[in-house]
Amino acid sequence: MNLGLDPKPRKHQVNRRRRGKGNSELKDSKSPSADDVDSKRPPHRKSNKNQVKSRPAKKVTSNEKIADVRRKGTTFAKTSMSTELKDQVQQVEHLLGVDGFKVFKKGKNSTSYGLAAPGVLGSDTFIFVVTIPFSYPRQPSKLDPVNNLAEGKREIQVELGHIVNNFNSKAHEMTSAGQPLISQFNYLLTQWSKMTSPNYKQKERLNKEFLANI
């Protein structure tokens, strides 16, 4: 019995659906997948913000070294005497007298004095030149080299050189220990003969070790 229903349209509809499904599959096949997109992206570069680049060490020139030494040398520079230094200088002037201790030369950061030393190396009165920086006691006093001796006194020149070097070392030690200028100059005037020896520092060290063991 034919009810007027033709099965062909159904087949047509099925084919249509399949064709539509095929189109969707074709469409899907053309669209790139997420993996394909990720594979085509350029690789991510890590930030170098936290990475410290090593730099070659800077070479210090000789001129820079000299400038650094000069800069350190002026660290303690002062242009006037402190109250403590004035008091100690006045004490020396009072005890040694005007002729025994007088101003020799005034500088920007220090003052040099002539210190009279009777009987030094056979002379009636020998004048040492001692320079006291305004930064004293942070920097010690020191004897200036003696270069004005007459020719033919080579031996005396050598002994004076020992006195200058040994006293400057002793003055540094005494200043660090808090001993005043008058004590330092009194040591020079009374112990200068010991300081003519080139082995003075070694003898001083042995003497200190001996006294420490008593």
What's this model, at a glance?
This is LADA_0A00320g1_1. Helices cover about 50% and strands about 10% of the residues.
Key features of this structure:
214 residues; alpha+beta; Ubiquitin Conjugating Enzyme; 4-stranded antiparallel β-sheet; 7 helices; 49% helix; 12% strand
Please write out the topology.
Elements: H1 7-30, H2 34-40, H3 62-73, H4 83-96, E1 101-106, E2 110-118, E3 125-133, E4 142-143, H5 154-176, H6 181-191, H7 200-212
Antiparallel strand pairs: 1-2, 2-3, 3-4
Report on the structure:
Residues 9-21 have a biased composition (Basic residues). Residues 61-71 have a biased composition (Basic and acidic residues). This is LADA_0A00320g1_1. Residues 1-72 are annotated as: Disordered. This protein has helices spanning 7-30, 34-40, 62-73, 83-96, 154-176, 181-191, 200-212; strands spanning 101-106, 110-118, 125-133, 142-143. Strand 3 (125-133) and strand 4 (142-143) form a beta hairpin. It has a four-stranded antiparallel beta sheet. The chain contains seven helices and four strands, in the order H-H-H-H-E-E-E-E-H-H-H. It has a domain at 77-212: Ubiquitin Conjugating Enzyme.
Our measurement of the CA-to-CA distance between the termini, rounded to an integer number of angstroms, reads: 145 Å
Q: Give the overall shape.
A: globular
Instruction: Please identify the oligomeric state.
Output: single chain
Mean pLDDT: 77
Query: Which fold name corresponds to the CATH topology of the domain at 77-212?
Result: Ubiquitin Conjugating Enzyme
Number of H- or I-type helical stretches: 7
Structure class: alpha+beta
Helix content: 40-55%
Order of helices and strands: HHHHEEEEHHH
Radius of gyration: 47 Å
Biased composition (Basic and acidic residues): 61-71
Biased composition (Basic residues): 9-21
Region (Disordered): 1-72
Protein name: LADA_0A00320g1_1
